[in-house]
Structure prediction request, 680 residues.
Amino acid sequence: MEDPSGDPIADLITSFNELNPSAVEELDEEPSPLEFMRYVARNAPFVVRGAAAGWPAVRRWDDAAYLREQLAGHRVNVAVTPSGNADAPTAMEESEGEGEEEEQDNNNLVFAKPHEEDQLFEEFLSYLTTQEKNLDGRGGGEEEEVRYAQTQNDNLRHEYSSLYSQVPPSIPFARIALQKLPDAINLWIGGSRSATALHRDSYENVYVQVAGAKHFVLLPALCQPCVNERALAPASYSRGENRLRLRAEDRGDRVPFAVWDPDVPDVRATKYSHLARPLRVTLNPGDMLYLPAMWYHKVTQSCSEEGICVAVNYWYDMEFSGPLYPLTSFVRSLGSQATK
Amino acid sequence: MEDPSGDPIADLITSFNELNPSAVEELDEEPSPLEFMRYVARNAPFVVRGAAAGWPAVRRWDDAAYLREQLAGHRVNVAVTPSGNADAPTAMEESEGEGEEEEQDNNNLVFAKPHEEDQLFEEFLSYLTTQEKNLDGRGGGEEEEVRYAQTQNDNLRHEYSSLYSQVPPSIPFARIALQKLPDAINLWIGGSRSATALHRDSYENVYVQVAGAKHFVLLPALCQPCVNERALAPASYSRGENRLRLRAEDRGDRVPFAVWDPDVPDVRATKYSHLARPLRVTLNPGDMLYLPAMWYHKVTQSCSEEGICVAVNYWYDMEFSGPLYPLTSFVRSLGSQATK
Prediction:
């Protein structure tokens, strides 16, 4: 392992670690707008256990029959992948890629977009719950395709509008502090094999668990030099001959994307990855997470007894004035140079 | 002029300029704690015209006779320099330095500390007002020594405690938002020849003009690559043979200090200096400036009709958690490398 002492990038990451908590802060109740703004100013995450326990969504949506009734006859967009790897760095199969075999090699990694199709909501839900029962009972399911309703396009106010009245239209402390309404309210419905690969968004994010659990791994924006961002060729799954086939896209820009996984820290690491100190937090039903703008997050999930994992998140556009955004871009430029 | 396009440091400064206001924001009235916290979060300065117009200090301290009465018989610490250059990069005179003659040369620059001595307050004040009248009337004063009461050690609560009751003990919006009391409340009394050289502090700073005017030139922390920070040898003025003499200190660490002056932009510039976009704001009596932590500031001043310039500032310790402090240090490391 290279000794990065005296290296400004290494100093940046270690000094951040020294000056900041090593765990996500837990609040007893929702913050006031001013208290929230202090976290925004520090770009620091927190979790409020049970903050949303009283929401109609949290009280009702764990009941698959209830959801089925609310959305009977609706068709919803479903992301389909072989292993839950929607929008994730994925090794091209040898027959499709360039024949590289080395585990750590980046050359055959592509940015895999899911196959997307509309499905009847009740069929989608039955698929999820049946697969989850099989997985639980070790009755198979490991080889089946994975389905995930994860359109991050304000779907709760559009695709799932019949459910929208069961969540608040905004999070009061965030609305008052940030002086804006959410750009998007997203509903996520999936199973235990779906994951969201490490990435970041230019949104202040309030994430609420509704059913099942989500397991977050978090890294601050300045850990960019740890995440091994690569320009991946885009590829998409499509259905063919009874299996999903991943094909490189003929056109389409390469996607800059983190290929380091903090849960597999020795693979595809940069010389800075070992300096990262990921924060881990699990959200259970009713828990609320403030995920600050530009923080990297990887998310895995567990299902409720009904066999589903459901969450809602609120995206508030981040503040682009001030030093955070340009400094984050600066670290990215330097980090990309240093880890080429 | 070197073209720095494609240079991450140049991109950092220009993208900050594009995303941020080109003037200090002006508020009609003091912000609420939440409104203030939004500025802290953006690390963005603002001025509130007349916010302190009702303070007893602002109503009374422009009257030199009143001040003299309040502090009669008190001895106060006075910084004495030949030209108002206390704590400023200063060229060693040839006989004392290494004989370098070139104007732009950095080698003969030292960090000049003032001669400090205790003076009877009434004598100090008479010196100021008399000098200022002479300067105004062109009756001389340009060659006389410059005196400035500028001890930044919480002097209003100690050295000048008889005046302290005439200002608030804290600024309410800052106390509530930052959840702390000021580390220091500083009183500044000087004349029009004193200046404070470009520097920065790790404090959230609320600056209130009491008498006369202060002229601020401000640069965000990420302009470090523009300010030409150099490790200057320390030197001090002392009285000798009817004049002030600047002597290098035998011991004492070098002082890292900005040697670029945004008011003389072509001298001692770095390749990035021309990218800086200084914000300028003048404070008149009763005006209040929020000067965010780590912003560079150069301050010059003008006197009231009484011939004095008086100000008070509140220093609140900055938040060291979050990304601002480590990222500021990171820019400094990279900036120092790039402008060596």
User: Anything to note?
Assistant: The interface with chain B takes residues 8-9, 11-12, 15-16, 19-21, 33-34, 37-38, 40-44, 176-177, 179, 220-222, 319-327, 329-331, 333-334, 337 of chain A (CB under 8 Å).
